[in-house]
Design goal:
Blueprint: H1 2-27, H2 35-42, H3 46-52, H4 56-80, H5 85-102, H6 109-112, H7 121-130, H8 140-153, H9 166-178
């Protein structure tokens, strides 16, 4: 019995991952997508979706949890990178990719309920301040909020010129205002 339960658990995990991936892929263009449509996109029966997520709200909460976990991973990977302006550019590159995937979550109450810094960006900003990458006359929380605001501003149509890369614009704009160097 034990051996047969392992494949079922693996199948359930795979089905859940497929459902979440389908939800992420469609929520940006169809914010009111039904669970039935998510099931169709995931290639699973709708009963499978309901087994994992009894309601649309449960699915959205799971997507938010996944997004926050991935956001924490971005911050953690950046924190392991050698400290310096290159790390800011790395964070900007990872952030623009993250935003491409999860921009539909901006403004959702489930995200706001996670608190002002659910991915730990302030701690990274503080580390950069301690290593003289960022100025120290501003709070790390304010620097984190500013970085996020600049990243979100890049989502506006026309925010980036055709010959510009969004992550380079983000890093350059952030460093122009926050860099410790004169």
């Amino acid at each position: 019995m034990r051996a047969s339960s392992r494949p079922r658990r693996a199948d359930a995990r795979i089905a859940r991952e497929r459902i979440l991936a389908a939800a992420v892929s469609v929520l940006g263009t169809e914010p009111l997508v039904s669970l039935e449509r998510v099931a169709q996109l995931a290639g699973v029966h709708r009963a499978t979706v309901y087994r994992h997520f009894p309601s649309r709200e449960h699915l959205i909460e799971a997507v938010v949890e996944q997004a926050l976990a991935e956001g924490r991973d971005v911050v953690d990977r950046t924190a392991r990178h050698p400290v310096g302006e290159k790390a800011v550019y790395l964070l900007a590159a990872e952030t623009t990719q993250y935003e491409d995937r999860y921009s539909f979550l901006i403004g959702l109450p489930e995200v706001a309920a996670a608190g002002p810094d659910p991915i730990g960006l302030s701690a990274l900003m503080q580390s950069w301040q301690e290593h003289d990458v960022l100025r120290d006359d501003m709070s790390p929380q304010w620097l984190a909020a500013t970085f996020v605001a600049l990243a979100q501003a890049l989502l506006a149509p026309g925010a980036v010129l055709p010959d510009q890369l969004p992550h380079e614009v983000l890093a350059a704009m952030f460093l122009r205002g926050a860099s410790a160097s004169d």
